[in-house]
Amino acid sequence: MNFLEQKILADGVVKPGNVLKVDSFLNHQIDIRLMQKIGEEFKRRFADVQFNKVLTIEASGIAIAAFIAYLNDVPVVFAKKGQTVNSTDDKYVAKAYSFTHKKFNDIFVSRPYLKPTDKILIVDDFLADGEASKALIDLVKQAGAELVGVGIAIEKGMQPGGAKLRAAGVRLESIAIVDSMDPETGFIKFREQ
Amino acid sequence: MNFLEQKILADGVVKPGNVLKVDSFLNHQIDIRLMQKIGEEFKRRFADVQFNKVLTIEASGIAIAAFIAYLNDVPVVFAKKGQTVNSTDDKYVAKAYSFTHKKFNDIFVSRPYLKPTDKILIVDDFLADGEASKALIDLVKQAGAELVGVGIAIEKGMQPGGAKLRAAGVRLESIAIVDSMDPETGFIKFREQ
């Protein structure tokens, strides 16, 4: 069992409706040493590929992206949701369905920050149905950039996102893959890796 | 002139409507070495105070918070905007007026992540009218926690947020304070510190 699986067992909470609550260390309160370990683990797993930019999506992907980017000395770009007054640039826009919010969200990256010459590592905190990852990959493709891989902290293996990405030939590395969980007992089964 | 002022002069863009666009290095694409330097500068400026938690607000505050938290080995908590299905805890909620989006936004932190015993350093990328900082301070007060200071990367000194916080006795440290800027010429005047 790796460090992240141990942390999930210790501090994650299984809730009804297929919810794994990890906001005490990952996506509301952030355990910074854990982020560092996640960054180091991504560095190890993606040691054989080269990338010059880490792409994620606001908000909870940013802390994870910061450490792998720091370790490889490359910038982070985070895709934004919705529109802002200060963002008048031409954008790459993709649609992601949010099962949490039950609607399609536009996500975008301003064109100057994704270039055809870029080699992109996508990272995010969660992969479930794969909508966010799919939309981020869409942005990379629109820019004509190269996707070198997708690094995920926690994959919910009982949802189809991971299987779809792997079937599409994407190099996907998930540090912890939850294959089942039980809100009654709190039991969490991780996939052997 | 410090490292952040130099970076703003090199890569910031002054736009009409009092907008300083820094999304090439701070709040869309993120220059990770710059975040590290901002973290180190906060560590230096707040060396005389003790804090056990860094509080910021999603999304662009997170990368800044990550490095000062890393250097002091404390967790980050980021306040969220709006509501999510997965966040059913009791919350501390405060209102912040967004001049960008021209509306009041609720921001919140789940109660377990702000405690009466916490000593909190608030950090954010920008301080202009001070609405976000004021709302974050409100959350700290609601929790009965202690505010030790507010660290800002870029303060827009011609807007009233900084003056209001200082008048209220808040220990405010802004790495770069822009006192005026001209969209015609791109000229940016920084306050002497």
From TrEMBL, chains A, B:
<protein>
    <recommendedName>
        <fullName>Xanthine phosphoribosyltransferase</fullName>
        <ecNumber>2.4.2.22</ecNumber>
    </recommendedName>
</protein>
<comment type="similarity">
    <text>Belongs to the purine/pyrimidine phosphoribosyltransferase family. Xpt subfamily.</text>
</comment>
<dbReference type="Pfam" id="PF00156">
    <property type="entry name" value="Pribosyltran"/>
</dbReference>
<dbReference type="GO" id="GO:0032265">
    <property type="term" value="P:XMP salvage"/>
</dbReference>
<dbReference type="GO" id="GO:0005737">
    <property type="term" value="C:cytoplasm"/>
</dbReference>
<feature type="binding site">
    <location>
        <position position="156"/>
    </location>
    <ligand>
        <name>xanthine</name>
    </ligand>
</feature>
<comment type="pathway">
    <text>Purine metabolism; XMP biosynthesis via salvage pathway; XMP from xanthine: step 1/1.</text>
</comment>
<feature type="binding site">
    <location>
        <position position="20"/>
    </location>
    <ligand>
        <name>xanthine</name>
    </ligand>
</feature>
<dbReference type="GO" id="GO:0000310">
    <property type="term" value="F:xanthine phosphoribosyltransferase activity"/>
</dbReference>
<comment type="function">
    <text>Converts the preformed base xanthine, a product of nucleic acid breakdown, to xanthosine 5'-monophosphate (XMP), so it can be reused for RNA or DNA synthesis.</text>
</comment>
<keyword id="KW-0328">Glycosyltransferase</keyword>
<keyword id="KW-0808">Transferase</keyword>
<feature type="binding site">
    <location>
        <position position="27"/>
    </location>
    <ligand>
        <name>xanthine</name>
    </ligand>
</feature>
<dbReference type="GO" id="GO:0006166">
    <property type="term" value="P:purine ribonucleoside salvage"/>
</dbReference>
<dbReference type="InterPro" id="IPR050118">
    <property type="entry name" value="Pur/Pyrimidine_PRTase"/>
</dbReference>
<keyword id="KW-0963">Cytoplasm</keyword>
<feature type="binding site">
    <location>
        <begin position="128"/>
        <end position="132"/>
    </location>
    <ligand>
        <name>5-phospho-alpha-D-ribose 1-diphosphate</name>
    </ligand>
</feature>
<dbReference type="InterPro" id="IPR000836">
    <property type="entry name" value="PRTase_dom"/>
</dbReference>
<keyword id="KW-0660">Purine salvage</keyword>
<dbReference type="InterPro" id="IPR010079">
    <property type="entry name" value="Xanthine_PRibTrfase"/>
</dbReference>
<comment type="subunit">
    <text>Homodimer.</text>
</comment>
<feature type="domain" description="Phosphoribosyltransferase">
    <location>
        <begin position="47"/>
        <end position="157"/>
    </location>
</feature>
<dbReference type="GO" id="GO:0046110">
    <property type="term" value="P:xanthine metabolic process"/>
</dbReference>
<dbReference type="InterPro" id="IPR029057">
    <property type="entry name" value="PRTase-like"/>
</dbReference>
